[in-house]
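Please, structure for the following, as tokens.
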Amino acid sequence: MTTTPTFAVDVAHNKHLARGTAEADAIITVTATDADPATSHAAIVIMLDTSASMFRPSKLAAARRAACAAIDALRDGTSFAVIAGTDKADMVYPEERRLAVAGEDTRADARQAIEGIAAHGGTAMSRWLWLADELFAMSGCEVKHGILLTDGRNTSEPAEDLASTLDRLRGRFTCTCRGVGTDWEVGELRQIADALLGDVDIIAEPDELAADFSTIAARTMRKSVPDVALRLWTPQHSEVTELRQVDPSVADLTEHGRRSQQQATDFPTGAWEQETRAYHARIAMRPGGIGERMLVCRASIVGGGTQSKPVKIVVSWTDDYGRYGIIDPTVAHYTGQEELAEAIQDGLAARREGDLDTATGKLGRAVALSNEFGHAEASRLLSKVVDIDDAVTGKVRLKQTVSAVDEMTLDTRSVVTSRMRRSGT
């Protein structure tokens, strides 16, 4: 007997607005329960950078081991393929342009094929993604996920090619991106991950790849509810101007929204397991009069064979500062997390450009925010880039020497948020 997944939607927002205020912030928390991974059919395509820069034996050997580890983590019956990515995309396994089905024999054949991978050529990631999409299109699988590994920059095609590819592939599959070493571009992989509802991280040492790939594949096996969307309905006097995921990480979903019916927009969120995520919606509206209560949005989950009960977002206007001056703690926490991610990225960008005053100010602000919101991991990573004189006020000094690994780790993980701590937990 299988269970139908259940989604619960909860909203926290600033209920009281000052006179004339035409914008409201709401944090929409979504929790999935009763999700049974055994009921889903998944497909995984592994895209390995096999360009000339991967020639260093430890990198190529580690990439081979990582691909094998991911395949070993697949549930029997899972569809999969392995692609060798250079300035073109070639099939590693199976040889034909199709997906294989995981089982004892196909795993053994895949390992043998992976051992034959050689490093050569350039890097054109859009071609890897197009081949992955072609393979996914042949599959009737509900969960479609790519794993992309590179050690370098996308130098064999114009930047516009990758951007246009991502525009066309939005919503077709999700993709996890990993960069090994320090010669790749964080912005390029973040561009792919943001467009394809995935994440990006640095793997500093090649020997760490296999464990990471195994974890990614196992996590994909737990996804059981595909094609879930957050539906935001607004009346004629209001509209959603921004939507960002803020837990477990910051990701801008605004451009992913698609009109599903009159006055309703669906924002794809990918596939789910039993988990909780949070989203920050910014809603613009016509200001009401003092004492007026106004419905500005309804939030619900649709797709994946389920639909949740809509939750209303209602605001009112007041001249009483004791009411409009109180910021909802959940809203404060997650908007602060967004500011933290932005401060880190802006500070690192300024540092790279030689604007040391701006870098110091932005990274100092990040230190203060990470301290305020109890984000211990962000504080730890920031301490590798700045010397902290006062964490509360954000008084810092830029370190004279920062390793590329430390800078890129802070950059890639700047979007990882800390969960709101509930009282009594």
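The chain is about 30% helix and 30% strand. The chain has a mean pLDDT of 95.
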